[in-house]
Amino acid sequence: MQGIGGALYEELAYDDDGNPVATTFLDYLLPTATEVPVIEYGHIETPSAGPGGHKGVGEGGAIGAPPAVVNAVADALAPFGVKLTRLPLTPSRIVELLEDAYSSKSSMPPEETAAP
Question: How large is the greatest C-alpha to C-alpha distance in the chain, in angstroms?
Answer without folding.
Answer: 69
